[in-house]
Amino acid sequence: MNPIQIALAESDTDIARCFPVMAQLRPHLAETGFVARVRRMQTEGFHLAALTEDGTVRAVAGYRYHEKLFSGHTLYVDDLVSDTTHRSRGHGARLLDWLAGQARSRECDVLELDSGVQRFDAHRFYFRERMKISSYHFIRPLKE
Asked: Is 125 helix (H, G, I), strand (E, B) or coil?
């Protein structure tokens, strides 16, 4: 048995291996354009991390660093998802702890993420992981 490992998905193959899990959170994404989209986002500072167990991707996180007047230097988590068929095994918590370690190593002031209002199970997880609701997130769709 291989231990659980967390690493950045840097090759096209590694990025593609993340798609089945990421699609559970982002079902609107097409597999055919996923690698190219992640590559474009990487040029803007996006990072994709994968937690693997026995060589299989079990959880994925997309994140970036930025600075805000409001909160200072920030690690912002765009996406955090565990494979639905392997939930409640600690994968999400391990990946969130890894992200916090990445944030500390870059001397971030906070780790932030947004979560859809309908994701009640995710909210319970975030509260359990000592996160708090600090604001509302508003959007204005620009395409109909």
From this structure: helix
The secondary structure of residue 42, as a DSSP letter, is H
The CA distance from 83 to 25, in Å, is: 9
- Give buried/exposed letters for 23-48 (b at 16+ CB in 10 A, else e): bebeeeeeeeebbeebeeebeeebbb
**Helix, strand or coil for residue 1?**
coil
pLDDT tens readout for residues 94-131: 999 999 999 999 999 998 887 666 665 666 766 776 77
* Nearest partner of 4 among 89, 87, 125, judged by Cα: 89
How far apart CA 115 and CA 130 sit, in angstroms, is: 15
Please determine, looking at this structure, whether the domain spanning 5-128 carries the CATH number 3.40.50.150.
no
Strands 72-82 and 56-68: antiparallel
Q: How many residues does the chain have?
A: 144
pTM listed for this prediction: 0.85
First-to-last CA distance in the chain?
A: 49
- Report which residue type is found at 76: Y
Spans of all domains in the chain:
5-128
